[in-house]
Amino acid sequence: DTSGNVGIGTTAPGGKLDVRGTYDATFGSTALALHSTTAAAADVGPQIAFWGRTGLGTDPYIFAGIKGAKSNGSDYGGYLSLHTVAGDGTSETHSAIYERMRITSAGNVGIGTTTPSQALSVQGSGLFSGNLAVAGLTATGTISFPGGSISNATLANSTISGVALGGTLGALTATDSTLTFSGSYTGATARTVGLN
User: Fold this and answer.
1) In the prediction, which pLDDT does 30 show?
2) Sign, Cα dihedral of 136, 141, 145, 150
3) Which of 39, 100, 188, 191 is most buried (CB neighbours < 10 A)?
4) Per-residue pLDDT averaged across 131-144, rounded?
């Protein structure tokens, strides 16, 4: 138009590029499609890059990207990945772009890993500022509690082993079971607490 905006499927584009089309649940004729003409192979597919100014004499420069690519070279499976460029003060190569998150062809989400084996796989530390509800919890590493305290906890038919508790254990109940500590508890090497 007269403002320099480009419209595809519209004569009144509302931005620099305005693409419009009908909804297609199968993505067969969507409003916007990106195609890679590179020969089929694992990790090959179209990308969207986000560039900007750094103020460091290398403008413009890529900051982040999104890629949709083949999972392997033998079937139709694909994945979606998010990438960012490393900055100063990290152990990563300065200004190199790294994959941060991936959604696999199986629907698994990986953060810090490109091969998530579960619905959500996180490689590294995590922080939840609010409540976290889980239907089941299996720890393969260490579970740490801020301040070294557990209060108002309810455990059903549970055995806790290898736990070092140097403080006071209070307001802890067990449902229809005996709660057994086989680690150390306030100086003792083992302690069994029978609760109704």
Assistant:
1) 72
2) positive
3) 191
4) 75
Query: Could you tell me if residue 37 is left (phi over 0), alpha (psi between -120 and 50 degrees) or otherwise beta?
Result: alpha
Q: How far is CA 187 from CA 163, 171, 190, in A?
A: 12, 19, 9
Q: Which residue has the tokens 């996180």?
A: 122
- Type of residue found at 47: Q
Q: For 54-109, how does the pLDDT look when each residue is reduced to its tens digit (9 = 90+)?
A: 888 778 888 999 999 999 988 999 999 999 998 877 777 777 899 999 999 999 99
Residues in the chain: 196
- Average of pLDDT values for 177-182? 52
What is the distance between the alpha carbons of residues 107 and 121, in angstroms, rounded to a whole number?
Answer: 11
Convert 149-177 to b/e letters by CB count within 10 Å (16 or more is b).
Answer: eeeeeeeeeeeeeeeebeeebeeeebeee
On the question of pLDDT at 127 being above 50, the answer is yes
In angstroms and rounded to an integer, the radius of gyration of the C-alpha atoms of the chain is 26
Distance CA 58, CA 145 (A): 45
* Average per-residue pLDDT for the chain: 79
Neighbouring CB atoms inside 10 A of 67's CB total 19
Beta strand 78-85 pairing with 61-70? antiparallel
